[in-house]
Amino acid sequence: MPEMLTLFIIYVHILSAFYWIGGNLLFFSFGLSMRHIFKDPSLIPGFRALGKTFRIGSWISVFLLIITGFVLLFKRWGGFNTDMIIKVSLFLFLLPLKILHDFFIAPKAAKEEPPGFYFKLTLFIARLNLFILLLILYFSIKFVR
Questions:
Q1: DSSP of 44-81, one letter per residue?
Q2: Fewest Cβ atoms nearer than 10 Å: which of 2, 49, 61, 134?
Q3: Percent of the chain having pLDDT more than 70?
Q4: How far is CA 108 from CA 64, 126, 134, in A?
Q5: Cα 68 from chain centroid (whole Å)
């Protein structure tokens, strides 16, 4: 694979991971601020709109991560080792959680007035997703190091 193409694929892979992880960190910190500091219900529609927009971008990131990760794994790094097996296993565990959160639980939580069971479940799954993403990042760094 030509070096420029390889660098471009690595760039897209890292940028996609940053978008997904950074977006989750934003929601975690903004969500805490909104709930505990502002306590202003008028912010909720904006938060929901941001969530819908981020969902689209995060799924684009997921697909780019799958494509670029597959190419890099076999063309550049030569296959699996223990760290990569853990990383891929975590990613495969995370995908159904993301589907559950994005398409089933979060939409129900958005319709709850006042926020109740689905809202709390959405927060729990979102935090679990972020924790798993950070573990994936850790094993990614370990793998390429």
A1: HHHHHHHHHHHHHHHHHHHHHHHHHHHHHHHHTS-S--
A2: 2
A3: 92
A4: 28, 14, 26
A5: 16
Q: Is 114 exposed, middle or buried (0-12, 13-18, 19+ CB in 10 A)?
A: exposed
Residue 119 structure tokens = 């809202």
Cβ atoms of 111 and 51 within 8 Å: the answer is no
Element (H, E) at 42: none
Residues 6+ apart with CB under 8 A from 64: 12, 13, 16
80 φ/ψ sector (left φ>0, alpha ψ -120 to 50, else beta)? beta
Instruction: Give the model's confidence band at 128: pLDDT under 50 very low, under 70 low, under 90 confident, else very high.
Output: very high
Greatest mean pLDDT range, 34-38, 71-75, 76-80, 102-106: 102-106
- Cα-Cα-Cα-Cα dihedral of 112, 46, 126, 69, to 10°? 140
- How many CB atoms are located within 10 Å of the residue 133 CB? 21
Helix (H, G, I), strand (E, B) or coil at 110: helix
